[in-house]
Design goal:
This protein is of the alpha+beta class. It is built from six helices and twelve strands. It has helices spanning 2-68, 77-91, 102-227, 342-351, 396-412, 420-427; strands at residues 236-242, 247-250, 263-267, 281-290, 293-300, 312-314, 318-319, 322-323, 325-329, 355-359, 384-387, 416-419. The strands form three sheets. Strands 1-2-5-4-3-6 form a six-stranded antiparallel β-barrel. Strands 10-9-11-12 form a four-stranded parallel beta sheet, sandwiched between helices. The radius of gyration is 66 Å and the shape is elongated.
Length: 481
Amino acid sequence: MAREHQGLQIALIIFVMLTLILGVTTFIFFRRYDETVAELNTQTSAAQQARSQAETEQAQKIKLLKFLGGFPETEKIETIEEECRKDFTTYGDKFPEEQRTYRQLLKLLHEQIAELNKLYNAEQEKVQEFKNYNERRDDEVKVQITQANAARDQAGADLKQERDKFAQAHKEFTDREETLRTDLENARKEKEAALAQLQKQLDSAAQQIQKLAQLTSDQSKKLEDLVKETFEVADGQITWVNQRQRTVWINLGWADGLQRQTSFAVYDADTNDVTKAGKKGSIEVTEIWDDHLAEARIIEDQVSNPIIPGDKVHTPIWTPGERRRFALVGDMDLDDDGKSDLQKVISLITLNGGVIDCYLDDKSPNILTGEGKPGGKITLNTRYVVVGKAPEGTGGRERLDAYSRMLTEARRFRIKEISLKELLSQMGWRETNPVITYGPGANPAHFRPKPQEGLRPVSGGNVSQLFQERRPPAPKSKPEK
């Protein structure tokens, strides 16, 4: 019995324990169920709120898509952003990136439209003004057109009247023209006959004129050969010589119109034609003592052929009782240094009693105008043309043309031409202060070695002509006639 009661007790204990466990478990389960239900209710309420908010947002999205341009409800946000970006790039490129909104864009477009409306209204007012002006002008033009039509009708009537007058006058003119043409044809035939007769007489006269011109040319040439000025006759002669003082006396003076500083070339006493004989020296007049007596200094002479009494003197610039006239053509260069010595040549000729009629100015090429401009003018009284170098350098073309015209003018007057060097040689001029040129064009005679000062010169073995035996010059044969 005790064992049976023990089994019941154990079973009872187990039952009680299971009941307690089941009760606790049931309590915990129901508690968890209540919490789950409460949480489910909470989540259901949140879901309902979220669904409601989503539906609200979806409705707002649909409205926004409609505002943005009618995009579909299923359009992706990236596509919408890309389209908006394109719109801002197209219509709002001046906006900063942070200000690019449709409200700002609409504000900008509204302002621009308002400004354009103002301009449009202003232009409309101008257009209305132009319309009013055109209407007034149309009224004025209508009056003018009416007047012009009336004037046109009157002009048409006048034109018809004038045409009738012109037709009548043209008929009269045509009849008169025909009469004149007949008279002119008869006169032309008469004139042609007379012209043929005159042409025969003219041809005969032309042949006679040609013969006379040839005869005149031949006679002029002969006359020129007889009377033209040459250098054949000397102007005077040496009457006395003082070699120690390097002075001479000549038989020219006040009565001959001689001037101081006149230069002469000296020729041998037996010279008949000074143009064919070489000069033996040159002198310059220093004092005039009497009507036919003057003193001169020796500028140049030859030791082997000294100046002696009886030698003849001559210069092309001066002749007793006459002042010869010259024309200087070309560039005057006395020392071949490439620089003009025009003023020096002019002074040299005028100091020797000559007169300058014309010269080619260094600066002005207008020397043949005959209007008193610098340079003068060639005339029939000009005796000699001194020919220098052809012009070069600045203004060479114009001065070269003037140079050619001067030579042509001189040859037309048959004026004797003489070179500058020939003139200087014939007048006995010599450069007292020669220009020494260095370089390729230098003269070796300017650079001959000189003995040291204070030392006696030593002969090099060559005998100079200055120390050879002197003999009187042989008489020159007279030219055959």
